[in-house]
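Weekly sync notes, structure subgroup
Attendees: PM, AL, DS (notes)

Item 1: joint prediction request from the bench team. They want all two components modeled as one assembly rather than separately. Inputs as received:
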Amino acid sequence: MIRILLVEPMNLLRGALTATLSLEEDFEVVADLGTLDQALDMARAVPPDVAVVNVALLAGDGLTTIARLGAEQPDCATLVLAGPDESGLLNRALDLRIDGVVGTQAAPCELVRGIRRLVRGERVIDASLAVAMVTAPRSPLSPRELNVLSVAASGVPSTEVAAELHLSTGTVRNYMSAILRKTGARNRLEAVRLAEGAGWFQ
Amino acid sequence: MIRILLVEPMNLLRGALTATLSLEEDFEVVADLGTLDQALDMARAVPPDVAVVNVALLAGDGLTTIARLGAEQPDCATLVLAGPDESGLLNRALDLRIDGVVGTQAAPCELVRGIRRLVRGERVIDASLAVAMVTAPRSPLSPRELNVLSVAASGVPSTEVAAELHLSTGTVRNYMSAILRKTGARNRLEAVRLAEGAGWFQ
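Output from the run, pasted for the record:
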């Protein structure tokens, strides 16, 4: 039996995938979770052969959890599900020990095939997502500039960006000038759109 | 048999739902499509009892297609699948003859139950989505103002917004002033965020 741990936040997709994967005679979904919070505990209780995790959950602490899962469960392969606009997160996920990527535009049979290949020790990378990742423009911004832009992205004025980041308003304005110069954007909104489109905030 | 036409753009979800719904002995997914383009043709070929359609497809021409489906197939109930952030589109969809709404945070068994209720002639509205729709702030903007803001949302300067909408730059600036005044936003980016968050662009 191939034991699968499925972590997907959209209940409808998670439920339908659990039912679909369970149709395979040698597949067993040993746990399905909406967040990574209890993934380590579940994996300790019933060690899975494959963890299937939505890439959206790898923002913030998610990458740490996946790294720990890899360290604790060296026999468990990790497969990430990713949408077409998530190449930023995906690039960061691939720096970790991720064994496979399947796109949400794949058919369920492709996910089934990917899981089987992973269990055989192969690596699985969705071709259309790979193209998107390779062609996505890399960020020219420093981590600090990206941070300033991500706070400004909510639409708050520079004074509030400054307050939130414990900077002076003048410093925030200097960062914004550098951001516009480096990205070639003509205004703050255009810079935000560029960063969102390229996945730099993820 | 309950014949289902499923129209969902995410291949993985569509495939998994088709497999899951087909597990019900009295359900038959007579067609599954990624767009509404061929939905009318498919419905004419094999009249469905229920059309399950992702709300994202109702933007633009989608509402017209659904209205025509309702007119051509009076015995076919329409059920919309919607995510938690799509109350704007959902509000517009409900002005049409939509018989049911199920959220993407529902479990597959809730979708199954919703389809059965629709076939019995009941109306099905996801409670958590209804709350989001009722509490979402209504747009204070005129259609023209909303149009100006939606073009500006890409980050292009007023001169380009003016060129695209065949207006003078001064007129666009006047619209932007009215937009900031009516929404209470402190700048263009904040106005765009407000409109996106409330679903006014959908």
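Discussion: The longest helix of chain B spans residues 169-183.
Action: AL to compare against the crosslinking data before next sync.
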